[in-house]
């Protein structure tokens, strides 16, 4: 049985009669406290059953008075107006200076009967801290009481709380939609992850195939070197033959005069042959100077052969052999011309692809540098959040120590109240046996009025406490959701860091492979140029030289295919980097939404903290008022025991005090187990399960000690990349382009020679070996 139930165990008939007799005058606009040193007004209204008398008066009494003559001061009542309302003014000289007592107004008739009692109030001396300066709408400073200002602020806060509730509902709906989007994105990410795995498998297979092709190219290169050595030996033999022919031509020139007579017969037969030789001279004159000199000497030799008449038969045989050999050389030169044209086309295609690969490498370097900058920004934000987390942890430890101190003080106060309760209960049991025949009078009704007011205030504070608890649970749940999302984003950040590191390592390996292939391509180009020069200088080479040239052209084709595979591999890596950049942009948007939600939560926490302070102050005032009522009741009971022997005509029954001594303690704020460091802005009230009851009728008091368990972290799924298209940036001037062809043309205009992928520096006028050493040192 609670104290309120005990106090209310009064006969209903007695209460009805008292209300009829003692509620004929109603006091209006009674404040909780009045300031000493100032006059104050007392307003009241009459009921229709009340008859005014000029000898009626309004008295100022202490709560718990027993006789009408125990007034502190009285003022003659005024005649009511048409609305049955009137007011009186109490002078400042009659106001007591004791601010620990509780007072009330009572309307006393001319016969000495009480017809109305006001709510309890106190007198407080002037305290500068209770007055505040408030600026009105016109800009003037007005001095008001702190309590009035706080009540106005409380009403504003309650209105703002409703607005915040509406905003909170909207935020929840947005969060629900965002969660749906996150689920869809996670599904897309899993799909993309499977595609990436399949692509990586394909890339690995292509890399193995490229390595096999590279081994084949190396073997074929060794074979081609052997063939080239054979070609060189053949070239030496041909040079020797040319020297022998030159000596023969010198001998023939001496006999030129003797052979002039026979030129007429030979010129007719040699016209067709001279035309063919001239065509061959015009075709091979652009390729080699030696060939041109040789053909000129050959024509001279043929003209001298036309003049030879003496050795016609021997020269005719030599002529036939030379004609057969020249026909074969003409056929071989035509074949060489076709091969040279195809080789030049392949070389041009290879140079175009090589330049495109270099441009794609420069673009990838720029994208990698932008990713590194974004990663650095993410690291800075992460360090800032960790520092804020450490500060919040320190504040949480301070709040826990403060909470423990407050719980200890609350326990001591509870023990003191229990002692008072036991003493009052013993006195109550003693007086109960002596007050069975007592009759209720006006003082008991006045005390009942004061008690009802205290009880109404307490119920109001309880309702506000329930609303605050509900608001606390909502905010804590919201904080928990945002903290889980923050942990998820941190894990995504770590995953992205690992991915960036892996991408950098993979890029370095691919770059080294590309450089190796480029070196091999340059070597093959040099060998191709050497072979071309050999072809130009040795038109009369045999079939072995032709076969060596064909083998070298095949090796160039194989190298071309390897370069194509390398370019495709770089394109796939570029697509992966584009997907990663899209994921980074999505992560940035989610972080912005989390920051906005966190700012909204901080505003709600600040407003809630102010409301808690106001609530705790009101609870302290109610507690003080309750203690004073209990003390007054104890004094009244002692006085009644002393006055019993003097035979008072009217005494106060003690049954009405059974419930006053046990008003419950104000709830102490304690943090819930769901609160985390990012949301702790003040102290919180514990749930109902954390309150214990020492006895059946005793008040609840909070459990002391640390009731906050350790927080458990939950692992989330790894965040995967999404698909996106990055901007095309020039690695030199950072200019943006819409198409890859425009970018390649723009980069070629810079005349870049070598670009380091690690330190992003341009290296002009350096050898290939110095460039490779620089890249290895930067790693």
From TrEMBL:
Residues 151-290, 389-434, 461-506, 587-628 form a coiled coil. Residues 728-755 form the C2H2-type domain. It comes from Dimorphilus gyrociliatus. GO terms for molecular function: zinc ion binding. Pfam families: SKICH. Signal peptide: none annotated. This is DgyrCDS13933. PANTHER family: SKICH DOMAIN-CONTAINING PROTEIN (PTHR31915:SF6). InterPro entries: SKICH, UBA_autophagy_assoc_protein, Znf_C2H2_type. Keywords: Coiled coil, Metal-binding, Zinc, Zinc-finger.
């Amino acid at each position: 049985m609670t104290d309120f139930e005990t106090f209310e165990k009064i006969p209903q008939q007695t209460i009805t009669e008292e209300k009829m007799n003692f509620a004929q005058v109603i006091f209006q606009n009674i404040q909780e406290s009045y300031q000493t040193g100032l006059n104050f007004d007392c307003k009241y209204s009459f009921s229709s059953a009340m008859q005014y008398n000029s000898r009626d008066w309004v008295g100022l009494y202490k709560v718990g008075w027993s006789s009408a003559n125990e007034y502190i001061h009285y003022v003659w009542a005024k005649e009511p107006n048409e609305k049955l309302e009137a007011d009186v003014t109490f002078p400042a000289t009659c106001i007591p200076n004791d601010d620990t007592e509780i007072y009330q107004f009572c309307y006393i008739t001319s016969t000495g009967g009480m017809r109305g009692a006001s709510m309890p109030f106190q007198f407080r001396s002037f305290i500068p801290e209770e007055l505040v300066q408030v600026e009105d709408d016109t800009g003037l400073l007005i001095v008001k009481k702190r309590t009035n200002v706080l009540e106005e602020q409380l009403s504003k806060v309650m209105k703002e709380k409703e607005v915040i509730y509406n905003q909170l509902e909207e935020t929840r709906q947005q969060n629900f939609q965002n969660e749906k989007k996150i689920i869809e994105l996670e599904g897309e990410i899993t799909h993309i992850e499977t595609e990436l795995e399949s692509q990586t498998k394909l890339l690995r297979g292509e890399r193995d195939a490229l390595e096999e092709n590279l081994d084949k190219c190396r073997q074929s290169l060794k074979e081609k070197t052997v063939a080239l050595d054979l070609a060189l030996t053949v070239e030496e033999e041909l040079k020797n033959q040319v020297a022998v022919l030159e000596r023969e031509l010198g001998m023939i020139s001496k006999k030129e005069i003797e052979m002039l007579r026979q030129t007429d017969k030979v010129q007719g037969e040699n016209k067709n042959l001279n035309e063919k030789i001239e065509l061959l001279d015009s075709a091979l004159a652009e390729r080699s100077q030696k060939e041109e000199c040789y053909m000129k000497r050959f024509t001279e030799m043929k003209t001298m052969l036309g003049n030879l008449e003496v050795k016609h038969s021997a020269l005719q045989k030599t002529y036939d052999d030379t004609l057969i050999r020249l026909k074969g050389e003409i056929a071989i030169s035509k074949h060489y011309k076709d091969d040279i044209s195809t080789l030049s086309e392949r070389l041009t295609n290879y140079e175009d692809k090589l330049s495109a690969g270099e441009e794609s490498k420069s673009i990838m370097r720029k994208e990698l540098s932008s990713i590194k900058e974004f990663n650095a920004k993410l690291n800075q934000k992460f360090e800032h959040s960790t520092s804020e987390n450490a500060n919040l942890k320190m504040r949480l430890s301070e709040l826990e120590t403060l909470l423990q101190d407050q719980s200890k003080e609350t326990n001591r106060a509870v023990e003191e109240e229990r002692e008072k309760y036991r003493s009052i209960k013993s006195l109550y049991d003693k007086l109960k046996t002596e007050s069975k025949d007592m009759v209720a009078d006006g003082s008991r009704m006045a005390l009942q009025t004061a008690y009802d007011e205290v009880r109404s205030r307490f119920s109001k504070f309880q309702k506000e406490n329930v609303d605050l608890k509900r608001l606390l649970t909502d905010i804590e749940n919201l904080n928990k959701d945002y903290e889980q999302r923050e942990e998820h984003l941190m894990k995504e950040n770590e995953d992205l860091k690992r991915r960036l590191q892996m991408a950098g390592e993979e890029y370095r390996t691919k770059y080294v492979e590309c450089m190796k292939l480029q070196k091999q391509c340059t070597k093959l180009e040099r060998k191709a140029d050497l072979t071309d020069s050999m072809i130009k200088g040795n038109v009369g080479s045999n079939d072995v030289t032709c076969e060596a040239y064909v083998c070298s052209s095949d090796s160039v084709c194989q190298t071309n295919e390897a370069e194509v595979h390398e370019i495709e591999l770089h394109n796939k890596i570029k697509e992966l980097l584009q997907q990663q950049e899209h994921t980074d942009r999505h992560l940035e948007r989610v972080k912005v939404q989390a920051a906005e939600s966190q700012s909204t939560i901080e505003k709600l926490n600040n407003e809630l903290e102010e409301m808690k302070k106001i609530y705790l102050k009101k609870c302290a005032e109610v507690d003080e008022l309750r203690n004073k009522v209990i003390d007054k009741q104890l004094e009244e009971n002692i006085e009644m025991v002393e006055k019993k022997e003097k035979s008072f005509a009217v005494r106060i029954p003690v049954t009405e005090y059974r419930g006053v001594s046990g008003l419950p303690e104000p709830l102490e704020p304690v943090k819930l187990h769901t609160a985390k460091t990012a949301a702790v802005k003040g102290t919180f009230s514990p749930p109902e399960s954390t309150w214990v009851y020492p006895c059946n009728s005793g008040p609840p008091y909070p459990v002391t000690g640390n009731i906050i368990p350790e927080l458990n972290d939950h692992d989330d799924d790894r965040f995967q990349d999404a698909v996106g298209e990055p901007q095309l940036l020039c690695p030199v001037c950072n200019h943006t382009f819409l198409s890859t062809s425009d970018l390649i043309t723009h980069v070629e205009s810079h005349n870049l020679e070598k670009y380091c992928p690690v330190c992003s520096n341009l290296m002009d006028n350096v050898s290939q070996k110095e460039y490779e050493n620089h890249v290895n040192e930067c790693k």
